Amino acid sequence: MLRDEGGRLYSYVFADTARPIEDYVQDARRAVAQSVQLPPGTRLEWAGQYRYLERAKGRLAIVVPITLLVIFLLLFWNSWSATEALLVMLAVPFSLVGAFWLLYLLGYNLSVAVWVGIIALAGLDAETGIVMLLYLDLAWRQRKPRTQEEALAAIRAGAVQRIRPKMMTVATILVGLLPIIWSQGAGADVMKRIAAPMVGGVVTSALLELLVYPAIYAVWRARGLPGQVADEHLPSTSSPPAPA
């Protein structure tokens, strides 16, 4: 059968691989350039899934920055504080650590479905992070600390109140998403790649919000207060008074 496209004859060469399609095409292009001499008037194009991947990457290059910008603006309008908005946004890189580790353990490659899961994870991190900051702000306003020691006590009280809600949130997310990881049937491959980054990311995000958020909050809010943050933890080095 004769096929034509754009007024020129063409033919297909089909290839299938279990490797990431982008890596395979790069290696295949290199091998073809070294071993194949195309006759005059002949051109070579890479189509199929690779072309779809290139189009998706182009769209994601626009969608991901816009998504992060929208999240930042929503956080800023909620607190009218760029510092607090940036503090919440810190959850995104920390959650990506767990997301990429789980993707590596499951043997998943980056794909459009994985990026959809990562975008959903960014929104989830912002939602849980703003609740942690809310507890810290409430504790700060209630206690109104005047020294760094009082500031640390207020931050500890606010962070401790957040432990149970955070654990309940993480448990609910895991209970809802883990069955997708082990699911089988039509559409399961796509759903697994959407759920995997969310499952891995929510674990490391929880550790960040419970351990790192309070420390950064203390550095930010207590830096202008009198007193040393670690005075109560340092041994006394002053000599006893001389007897009269």
| Range of helix content | 55-70%
Terminal CA distance reads 113 Å
The CATH architecture classification of the largest domain is Up-down Bundle
Total number of beta strands = 2
**Whole-number tally of structural domains:** 2
CATH fold assignment of the largest domain: Multidrug efflux transporter AcrB transmembrane fold
Number of helices: 7
What's the name of the CATH homologous superfamily of the largest domain? Multidrug efflux transporter AcrB transmembrane domain
Name the average pLDDT: 80
- SSE succession: EEHHHHHHH
Q: What is the top-level CATH class of the largest domain?
A: Mainly Alpha
Unreliably modeled segments? 229-240
Order the strands across the largest sheet as they lie in space: 1-2
